[in-house]
Design goal:
By secondary structure, the chain is mainly alpha-helical. The chain has helices at residues 8-21, 26-44, 56-68, 88-91, 95-98, 106-125, 153-160, 168-183, 187-192, 222-234, 242-245, 266-279, 289-301, 306-313, 318-321, 323-327, 329-339; strands at residues 70-72, 101-103, 198-199, 204-207, 216-219.
Length: 366
């Protein structure tokens, strides 16, 4: 290393460019840059601007700051960092406003610290620093809660019956729900779906670049294809602009004419599907992912092999698919009844006169 020490903010575009060269997804690059900007802002408030000014102590204080930080419920983290890593964000507001604040989730803390670790790994490789100040930081242990309950078949039917089929938007929304439910594809995969990816003869969709830039072929039901073709013929074909990008799911009723025919964005798809789930009156909460989760869970309950579900969902690791064996109570009860000795015992267990609810007999003094 020689010459003037570069500023953290000056290195960030170079780091982003290096990720693009290594074929990271644009969303990954955007996220990592955003997370590093929070750390850069934290350092700047403590007069640390150059890359070699970052010390292990600073990174550890940042970790403590993330742990004690309070953010608005439902709002992205974009507030200023307090000086001591304490919950100054709460102290700056009144008691009533503080009640609406929540701690930053463990996953949120982990993501922000992991971004710092990755950045300094790159900085060492690129020769901007000799040693990473984040090399020995222990990241928070991530929780592994059970997935949220999936929809039942009856609940899915309640949702798909909601779109108004007399309107272009309703026909598009029905096709979107049917495709997500039948194929279990991700929101981003649905947004990127093109006309050329639909293989009607074989009854499959070609997902060219799924998560991690992995492609796969996904079966689609005849029912979903029927609703998709109805939407393409009666609605999609009316928008000449759609032929330029060939994306399947487009804006059809935007107030601004110039926006009609454009591909739907991620936020729009979440808003659309979340609205239908809420309007259906089902007790579950969700939007796009709940249909993917439901497809896998129902397949598991109807006897699908877990490796088939792994290929269906595009999971690299079978452990990721294994969560559906946990959430499917029907599957678990069937396996328990078939394999546990207590479940298929010839006679019921002998019940003693001592009921579990009865008080224990007095014990002799020692």
């Amino acid at each position: 290393m020689s010459g003037a020490t570069p500023a953290l903010s000056a290195l960030l575009p170079l780091y982003a460019q290096e990720m693009r060269v290594r074929s990271f997804a644009p969303s990954t690059v955007e996220t990592q840059v955003l997370l590093m900007r929070w750390f850069i802002a934290y350092g700047a408030e403590r007069a640390v601007h150059e890359v070699d000014g970052v010390t292990r102590a600073l990174v550890e204080r940042y970790q403590l700051h993330l742990f004690t930080l309070r953010v608005k419920s439902g709002a992205p983290l974009c507030g200023r960092a307090d000086d001591d890593g304490a919950d100054g964000a709460v102290g700056a507001v009144g008691a009533g406003a503080a009640a609406a604040l929540r701690p930053l989730s463990v996953r949120g803390q982990h993501a922000r610290l992991w971004a710092v670790v990755r950045f300094f790994r790159w900085a060492v490789r690129a020769g901007y620093v000799e040693h990473s100040p984040a090399a020995v930081i222990e990241l928070p242990r991530l929780p592994h809660p059970l997935p949220k309950p999936a929809l039942t078949v009856a609940e899915v039917e309640r949702i798909v019956a909601l779109p108004d089929l007399n309107s272009p938007r309703g026909q598009r929304d029905r096709a979107l729900i049917e495709v997500l439910y039948a194929t279990g594809i991700r929101r981003g995969e649905a947004i990127a779906l093109t006309l050329d990816a639909v293989d009607r003869e074989r009854g499959v969709l070609r997902i060219e670049q799924g998560k991690g830039r992995k492609g796969r072929i996904v079966p689609i039901s005849a029912r979903a294809l029927t609703w998709l073709d109805r939407y393409l013929d009666r609605v999609w074909s009316r928008f000449a602009h759609a032929m330029t990008h060939r994306r399947v799911f487009i804006s059809v009723d935007d107030a601004k004419t110039r926006h009609q025919g454009r591909p739907l964005g991620a936020a729009a798809v979440t808003r659309i599907l979340g609205g239908y789930v809420a309007a259906s009156g089902v007790s579950k909460v969700g939007a796009c992912h709940i249909f993917r989760h439901t497809a896998a869970t129902l397949m598991m309950e109807h006897g699908a092999d877990i490796r088939a579900i792994q290929d269906f969902l595009g999971h690299s690791d079978l452990k990721t698919t294994g969560i559906y064996t946990n959430v499917s109570l029907k599957f678990l009860k069937e396996q328990h009844t078939r394999t546990h000795p207590s479940a298929f015992a010839a006679e019921p267990a002998v019940v003693t006169s001592l009921s579990p609810l009865s008080p224990l007999p007095p014990q002799p003094p020692r």
